[in-house]
Design goal:
Layout: H1 19-34, H2 49-59, E1 71-76, H3 79-100, H4 103-109, H5 120-123, E2 126-133, E3 135-138, E4 141-144, H6 148-165, E5 169-170, H7 179-185, E6 191-200, H8 216-219
Antiparallel strand pairs: 1-2, 2-6, 3-4, 5-6
């Protein structure tokens, strides 16, 4: 097998802003992203799939270990597949809520009002299942991927922000365990489920918990 040629390097520059413009832009982004909330009550109203694709393309621009880009985004709109995913997710979630979680965990979840029932998995117009490539296959041989957890986590962050900017609500749903996703969606064994992301418009009667986020001084340390 012939080795790959070394990468070609190209010039790069980043638009610079005066200090006050930087402050204004950072404040504006903070204000916008602070309005994002995790949603569990979705409208069934369809959303444009080209918008979903554009947001996934943005996520695919995220940095990754050795530029391996170890991710697959599966967009699910088929009602039957959504039904199967809901049934499998609820089975795992019911087992989790009733038998696996500790009393401390249950107490932490209680104020959020979550249960094992996940009707939004069928109501929502789009589900995005994000898979992490543990390794890839190239000409029949395993090709190691690096920092896959971190890389896919960054891509997920890009995706959530892109969808929010497009005016779409999301929920980072991680039923445990998630092996059923690979089976239902026919993914190869080198791809492991990372997160299931319902995407759509909030229902007209949608409500969310009134949560407090930690203040800057509680999360930032200067040395």
């Amino acid at each position: 097998m012939n080795p790959r040629p070394p990468p070609r390097f190209v010039p790069y520059s980043l638009e610079r802003f005066p200090d006050e413009a930087m402050r204004a832009r950072s404040r504006a982004f903070h204000a916008e992203i602070s309005g994002r909330r995790s949603v569990r009550h979705f409208s069934a109203e369809p959303v444009p799939l080209d918008v979903i694709d554009e947001c996934i393309a943005a996520a695919g621009s995220a940095p990754s270990g050795a530029n391996r880009q170890p991710w697959t985004f599966v967009v699910v709109t088929d009602p039957e597949l959504k039904r199967r995913i809901r049934e499998a997710a609820e089975a795992e979630e019911r087992e989790l809520y009733e038998h696996r979680i500790s009393d401390e965990w249950r107490e932490a979840l209680e104020p959020l009002g979550t249960t094992w029932e996940k009707p939004f998995l069928e109501t929502v117009p789009v589900l995005i299942a994000l898979f992490r490539h543990v390794y890839d296959l190239e000409e029949g041989r395993k090709k190691t991927n690096y920092y896959t957890q971190e890389s896919v986590g960054i891509a997920l962050g890009f995706l959530i922000v892109a969808l929010h900017r497009a005016g779409l609500a999301t929920l980072t749903h991680t039923p445990s365990p998630m092996g059923f996703l690979g089976e239902v969606l026919g993914r190869p064994s080198n791809e492991k489920p990372y997160v299931l992301l319902p995407v759509g418009h909030p229902a007209p009667d949608c409500v969310v918990p009134d949560l407090r986020k930690k203040a800057l001084d509680e999360i930032r340390v200067r040395r």
